[in-house]
Amino acid sequence: MTPTGATAALVLAVLTLAHHASLAAAAGPRVIIVGAGMSGISAGKRLSEAGITDLVILEATDHVGGRMHKRDFGGISVEMGANWVEGVNGGKMNPIWPIVNSTLKLTNFRSDFDDLASNVYREKGGVYKKAYVQKRIDLSDKVQEGGEEHSAKLHLSGQDDMSILAMQRLNDHLPNGPSTAVDMILDYFKYDYEFAEPPRVTSLQNTIPLATFNDFGDDVYFVADQRGYEAVVYHLAGQYLKADKSGGIIDPRLQLNKVVREISYSGSGVRVETEDNKVYKADYVMVSTSLGVLQSDLIKFEPQLPTWKVLSIYQFDMAVYTKIFVKFPKKFWPEGKGREFFLYASSRRGYYGVWQEFEAQYPDANVLLVTVTDEESRRIEQQSDNQTKVEIMEVLRSMFRDEDVPDATDILVPRWWSDRFYRGTFSNWPIGVNRYEYDQLRAPVGRVYFTGEHTSEHYNGYVHGAYLSGIDSADILINCAQKSMCKYHVQGKYD
Ligand SMILES: Cc1cc2nc3c(=O)[nH]c(=O)nc-3n(C[C@H](O)[C@H](O)[C@H](O)COP(=O)(O)OP(=O)(O)OC[C@H]3O[C@@H](n4cnc5c(N)ncnc54)[C@H](O)[C@@H]3O)c2cc1C
Ligand SMILES: *[C@@H]1O[C@H](CO)[C@@H](O)[C@H](O)[C@H]1NC(C)=O
Ligand SMILES: *[C@@H]1O[C@H](CO)[C@@H](O)[C@H](O)[C@H]1NC(C)=O
Fold it and tell me: What is the reported pLDDT for 27?
């Protein structure tokens, strides 16, 4: 090839590239995604795969992952938010599981609750007899089975839905309190520890049976990896955003520390304004912030969202689930098979009730996890960590009254409810609310689209729900942008 020929070829190549670049920019619409948690990152991936690559992701915090977030705690990395892959070893594959267990090989442990009957502590110390506790567990399992049968017969509209509490009453079981301390903590473990709200407010029809366990299996795997459960979100982000060698996202389309405060929308486009007074314009916006954030006034919509949308946002509950990690100079609790989970049967329902030790996960860390929910969570978020530590020490010294229980050296109390970027931990399904309200919660308003855990068709409250909702909501946007199918059909409540 002559030098001139080579130059001509080069010029042609450059022209072709430029042509493609301008085509790409012109072909796809510009989409702003608000939030870089699991659902926002998942939606962005789906849009990219459909050729919509002109994206800007605005994230309020300085990191990706949202409610999947690790924190250093006395030399180990613990999860402030999601910890388990829930729903494994069933008929269908939980989409998160292969990423965790095969692709990234995050260290994980199947949680074994089978010996719980041996690990229920009396309010004033020592454990209950196993046979007695087992009988109470069997009874509550039987009542739940009755609830499943009942649930299957209810009208799909939700008009006959009832609380789990009412279902228990129909089955002559009243564990909710005031009741025996054992019945209360077993009830708390079964329902509040999963849904973060009591059976009094939780829908029977939509939680028993629960689609997550029905579809994906009953097993749950605890992720305890120094890379954090959030590595799953970074992995998905790295599939369409530029990442550095260590997996950090360096793509300019991801903008951190950008707090969205206003979204204006019209027939021709959207305008998004952040707290630092920057303005972003686009064809569409995808809002992935939590239900708690939507229920707050953090983001102003202009014009205001229509009444049906606001009502659907308030139909659902944002629950609070608080994982308190405590570190000790030495261990004073039992270890070994079947000892990982233990319960404290307080006469005050849900008072520092569910405990987990980490012999397998963090062998020499001397760390315990105690979980509280709902009103206890809110109470604890509003007091000093020192006060919480005092309460925890008192509980532990009651449970292990014959042991030498040293003071905790460190405590970690996440505050998801007080955090204006979350306002809670995950959505819970209230009584009588059904597909109809759910479709409304997910439905776009003009050029404003919605995604997130709370919009997941079957798996609200979970990591896999957030992941799948990102795909679903992106598909709704793609239908409009690429096929001009912009009408989103919400099925009537009684259809
Ligand atoms: C304590 C806790 C325990 C949990 N345990 C489990 C578990 O064991 N297993 C499980 O499957 N699931 C669990 N979950 C639920 C799971 O973590 C969530 O369902 C999922 O991570 C939600 O993802 P998302 O994308 O819907 O929301 P988010 O993760 O909340 O993402 C939304 C993003 O938007 C950002 N944002 C908010 N406001 C703004 C704004 N104004 N401007 C810009 N950005 C904004 C947020 O910072 C966040 O990054 C748990 C959650 C918590 C909190
Ligand atoms: C997880 O991965 C390991 C190692 O590849 C494998 O042996 C194990 O069966 C997997 N677990 C499940 C539940 O799929
Ligand atoms: C908590 O207690 C420790 C020691 O008891 C003390 O050093 C610390 O200042 C206290 N912190 C707060 C916020 O009260």
Answer: 53
Backbone angles phi, psi at 312, to 5 degrees: -65, -35
C-alpha angle with apex 245: 241 to 251, nearest 5 degrees? 25
- Give the residue from 398, 427, 456 where a domain finishes: 427
Q: Is 268 annotated as a binding residue?
A: no
Mind listing the pLDDT tens digit for each residue in 22-53?
A: 344 445 689 999 999 999 999 999 999 999 99
Please check whether residue 382 lies inside any domain of the structure.
Answer: yes
86 is catalytic: yes
- Domain end, chosen from 408, 427, 446, is at 427
Ligand 2 centre distance from Cα of residue 91 (Å): 16
What single DSSP character describes residue 457?
A: S
Residues 478, 442 share a domain? yes
* 386 C-beta closer than 6 A to ligand 3: yes
Quick check: CB of 466 below 6 Å from ligand 1? yes
> What's the predicted TM-score (pTM) here?
0.94
Range of the domain at 385: 109-220+317-427
Is 260 labelled a binding residue? yes
- Give CA–CA dist 97/94, Å, rounded: 5
Q: How many domains does the chain have?
A: 2
169 lies in a domain? yes
